[in-house]
Amino acid sequence: MEAMVAVRSKPMLVAMLGLSLAGALPAAPALASESAVDWLNRVAQSRRSSTDQAPWVTGKIVAVHPRGAKLTLAHEAIPAVDMPAMTMTFPVAYMALLDKVRTGDAVEVQAANQGGVVRIVNIRPSR
């Protein structure tokens, strides 16, 4: 649920805007020092490194949840994230991964811990 705040005076609105922008100022030099190309390369490298280390694990798609960018997977143990075999709903790192699967598909997945959240970072049909 979103919170709505009614601002009744222009000075209050200006003060709130100023305070919110002030919080972004410490990050501004770091943002300005990195080009868009450098940022894309860094993101691509971090994706490669997280999936290069993760073993492929077999499982079966129990449900696909496009609205939440998640899938429910009955999977074997996932050593990359120290998880035993179970059925669990996972967020996916990229929405395009959901286009590759349907409920009931036998798959192989790679999972990685991204910012404290275990996500499916890669998926392919089971061999």
Automatic annotation (TrEMBL):
Keywords: Signal. The keyword Signal applies. It holds the Pfam family CusF_Ec. Residues 1-32 form the signal peptide. This is Copper-binding protein.
